[in-house]
Queue: 3 jobs
Job 1
Amino acid sequence: HPVPDYLHSLLESLESVREGEVAQYIPTLATAEPDRFGVALATVTGRLHSAGDDQTEFTIQSISKPFSYAAALSDRGVDAVDEMVGLNPSGEAFNELSLEEDSHRPDNAMINAGALATHQLLVGPYAGRQERIDRFVDLMSLLAGRSLRIDRESYEAEMDTADRNLALGHMLRSHGIIHDRAEDVVAGYIAQCSVLVTVRDLAVMGACLASGGVHPISGERVLPSLVTRQVMSVMSSSGMYDAAGEWLANVGIPAKSGVAGGLLGALPGQVGIGVFSPRLDEHGNSVRGVEVCRRMSEDLRLHIMEAD
Ligand code: GLN
């Protein structure tokens, strides 16, 4: 079959790429097997292909951000979420302690400050810590088409070293952007980052965004199309950390990366892509993941700005 063959040859041609470093800040990431490599492609019409380490589970980390944003947008409405989280690239590190000047909103939902604000918005104003976590895990399970779970070890390790996220949480609470205890919102956000996924899960989740919120396999509507439009817009401008502009020009697929080495792409009306390879470049994006997407964009003509 042409698609699986293509995916296999793509992985093979990039196996010799050994640049980059596995994330070091917690033991569960520092001890990841650096040579793991998997890719999956899901069409909006429900075809799913994968190659390499496509059964390996890894923590979703920052790739959770577009989905908690999607959940908050559907639970609270676009206007209510826009009031608390901006839509512009920050031009700063993902965990920077900074907010928009007058509104005190985080710049966008793809940086940690914005992800914490987004997590607080899940479900409704009176929801508690566990309800918000359940909402997130349930949505992710629905999108993946299987029951997903939180990796306790990663969760505990992140909680032990959460000072930066706690600082962000306290800063947000001092400005009324979150109203629960910073500890509870940070714990929820870290739980959301600790959900275990495979590249096949990521590809299907991406295809769900790409299809305007209709699940590519079940055919069920999971998210409103206005929500997926907004999520993919923010992913385009802010999804790849400081490399977002370069990414848009060179790859041209709305995408989000995570510090465990996962990468999710979503090309509107067409496909979702999932890649996993733990070595990261200086921006924090998977080295091979970036290269896989760049090649696919070129070989399959997926660049969103390509006219013909
Ligand atoms: N859990 C990590 C954090 O909050 C996620 C970071 C990432 O994937 N960039 O710092």
Note: The two ends are 26 Å apart (CA to CA).
Job 2
Amino acid sequence: MSPRPDPTTSAVAPAGDPISAQAAQAADRASSRNHPSPLDIATSVSDPSASRRVGPGSVIGMLGGGQLGRMFAIAAAQLGYRVVVLGDSPDCPAATVAEATLAGSLTDPRLLDELAARCDVVTLEFENIPVASVERLAGSVNVFPAAEVLRVAQDRGIEKQTLSRAGLPVTPFQLVHDRADVEQAVQRLGLPLVLKTTRDGYDGKGQWKIGSAEELSAWLAGGDTAASDPFERPLIAEAWVEHQCEVSVIIARSVVTGGDPTDTGAGQRVACYPVFENRHRNHILDVTFCPAAIDPETARRATEMATTAAAALGLIGLICIEFFVDSRGELMINEIAPRPHNSGHLTIEACQTSQFEQQLRAVCGLPLGSTELTVPAAAMVNLMGELWSDGEPDWDAILALPATHLHLYDKRAAKPGRKMGHITLTGDPAELPARIERIRQILS
Ligand code: AIR
């Protein structure tokens, strides 16, 4: 393990506490944008051509070819755009709906240069796109969200530093590089706590809940880490938050230099969706409800925090901010994802503008669309690979249900834990739980 500077102390650490050089750079970049005025926001965009309008008929580059890229390409086609995907395989989910797919590594300079040459603007569908690839593209074509946003979102430590320095509440945390750090984290944060790899973990991967001194000893002995050295990769310890529910807010933001009737001032355009309430199963999103069953004041604060986060990051594009609502009704940011989000899939049928069309509008400098619900309520149920264990599920029975919308991602292999599709239900909020139950019966 390479020696590292002292870990940062906590979400509430005063500025000036020791942090890693990388985290310090990111935090400095972000802190210079804390609570920006509209004027700051307009001038914080380093590339003055950032907001250049890219109209219908243009070609959009998509980094990543999964279901999020696929649903983006469908929305883009509706508005007369063409999409070129850079994905890992020629039959990735986005490939069948894109104009062209460049199949290969997201770090291949030849493919990146070809994408840049073919596209008018480039966006992405997962946040772990190598930053160097985005920087290479950005030398010749606008990429939104920018490399700087990805750098923050790819590292849980930098993410938490950046958000807390923007005055936003995050789960109390401590960076962990060695045994002494874990012991200090246990002292400061208490048990249980969650150890997470700072990079590359998702859907519960690279995460360990430590509930007792015995569990900590077992983890330190490497029992549950799949690694002989549990500190091989940088980690973050997070306090365990007893929460009543998890909610998410998806917000689009763009900065335009030209005047437009939808501008909110100094060129910043912002559009925020209603709050979504999320239920997980095995650390993976299972069901989303909208509107969330939280009081209006909590919803208002979540929206305000999402707006502050998007501006502090200098985001152009779409971002999802996930929150815990703790037992006292306080909000804490759990994580962020600067791309369309699984919890926003219901916007396709339930809102004036889907999250995918909104991403397109934001990165193309078009007016942002209304995020209003067009239905009383909606729910989204994920369809995971395990549903295929006895062959293809009975889609005809699902398609026979009213106000029920089936989406399948055309993935070639159904594996347990893999998102294969989703179903959106719209209608009376009181009836949604029973309708979800009916769907589960059909699919079981
Ligand atoms: N995705 C990205 N971050 C989180 C999620 N769920 C989507 C993207 C990505 C796809 O999941 O669309 O391309 C990868 O899915 P899979 O099943 O191939 O691992």
Note: Residues 1-49 have pLDDT under 50 and may be disordered.
Job 3
Amino acid sequence: MRPLVGIIMGSQSDWETLRPASAVLEDLKVPHEVRIVSAHRTPKRLYDYASSARERGLKTLIAGAGGAAHLPGMAAALTTLPVFGVPVESRTLKGLDSLLSIVQMPGGVPVGTLAIGQAGARNAALLAASVLALMDPDLAERLAAWRQAQTDAVAETPSDP
Ligand code: RP5
């Protein structure tokens, strides 16, 4: 099936953080693609990817990057698709640099910014699925079931490790 969500990341080193986004989309049976696209090291790849995303049939983008994390913002500058930004935890500044780089967009070019790290990646995928579910009742049911399973998995009392 043609991918509906594009997951892009600035580096191979970001994959560990972004992998849960892909896993959630797999669980929800949302067709998606995963690419390394660096705003700084492969700017032409970024331009080509983001500017052609809509015409290729993608409906939303999830973009993760760390440090001077310009990938989500530049992708948002090149497409009107919804872009969800995931700050990757950097070694030196623990991802605060990534978060601020992604969240502080100028008015008019939105990036929906998530939490730093894997929780942000997971939530980006859930948001992307929520957007798609607006027009896809079957996906809306799968999403509701996913959330219910999460609720059901929470024990009432803590157990010892
Ligand atoms: C950013 O620089 C990437 O998104 C990554 O989080 C960070 C470090 O990249 P590597 O030096 O590990 O390739 O562009």
Note: The beta strands are 5-9, 32-36, 60-66, 83-88, 112-113.
